[in-house]
Structures are given as C-alpha cells and as structure tokens.
Amino acid sequence: MRVRIIAISMAALSPVTASAAPAEKSETACLAAPALSPEIADWARNASSKTIYAYGDDLGADWSPLGPARTALPLHKFESLRYGIAPERKPDVFKFGGMIPIEVKKPGRLIVALDAGAWIDLIRDGAVVKSLAHGHGPACSGIRKMVEYDVTQGRYQLQIVNAPTASIHAMAVLRD
C-alpha cells in the first residue's frame, strides 16, 4: 500500500489531547507506544511543529498544508462561526468549530485524524461528501477520532463542529 501526503489548508482544526480509551483512563496508563498503521504513523513521531488557524466562515483565503505531522488547529466560538453548508450535526453553543480548505492532488482515501471528539463534514461543490469509515485511533495513540473519505482531485472544505476546546490537533493523509 502506497501512502501519499496531500496539501491541505486547514483553518478549523486545533489541538487537544484525548485517548481512544474511555475518559476515565489517562494516557499515562499506557506502558508501550501503540502500533499505528503506515498512514498515520507520523502522528506518534511528530510533535506539533506548526499551527494552522481555522476560518470562522466559508470564505477561506489561504491554502496552508495540513499533512502527516500533528498540527495545532485553533478554533472559533460557536457565535462567530458562519458555515457555508449547514453542518449535519447541530452546533452546540458551548463548543468550538471552524472550516479548513483542502486541496487533493490525486484520487484516493482521505484520512482525517483528530485528538478530540468533534463532528467533521467534508464539503465539495456545495454538498457534503459521505464518510466511508469513522472511529477511534488505536488505544494510547492520542487519536480520538478518525474519519475516511474517498476523494478525487480538487478542492474540498472540512467543517469542524462541536469540538470540546478552542484548540485541537489534526493530521490528514491520502492513501492511494
């Protein structure tokens, strides 16, 4: 299986550390590093080295890359968000969100990983792209949520809805 990193502009994701284990268990209970699939292996190898700011509306300007390294994503309060497409999950007024443009260079499976629970919509040409798989990352990995989409070449937008904190960590990779 060949894995290729894609350039993604993500202005709506941000960092929060959460484990795939239930909330009452902490990351400190993990004795060994988890085995991660090749697509997400860089999650464990890379500390956040950059920050990409999420947009508060759907008029995104910059196309900053979100790739294989965990990236800090500061988000917006509910009242300042203006989603271009109504999120499939009703926004909670006490939570955070944002929008992140993504440019896909070749068709494949887009994998988005977050370190916190949040709703993710992938938008293309004004419509929601159906997710193919979703779940938690491996225990003790720090990946709280993973969502996969089949994508073709072009521009997309991730909408992050109901993140528990004003900042989370994210990464996105494309599997051929």
From TrEMBL:
Keywords: Signal
Signal peptide annotation: 1-20
Keyword Signal: yes
Protein name: Conserved Putative secreted protein
